[in-house]
Amino acid sequence: MRRREFLTLLGGAAAASSNLWPRAACAQQGSKLWRVGIIVGGVRTPPYDGFLQGMREHGYVSGRDYVADWRFADGRYSRMTGFAEEFVRLKADVIFVGTAAAVDPVRQVTRTIPIVMGYSTDPVGAGFVASMARPGGNVTGLASSADDASPKQLELLAAVVPGLTRVGLLQNPDSPNYAPILKSTQAAALAAGLALVPADARDLQELDDAFAVLTRERVQAVRVAPDAVFFRRPERIAELALQHRLPTIFPQREYADAGGLLSYGENLKEFYRRAATFVDRIFKGARPADLPIEQPTRLNLVVNRKTADALGLTIPLQVYALADEVIE
Question: Tell me, which fold does domain 146-265+299-327 have in CATH?
Answer without folding.
Answer: Rossmann fold (3.40.50)
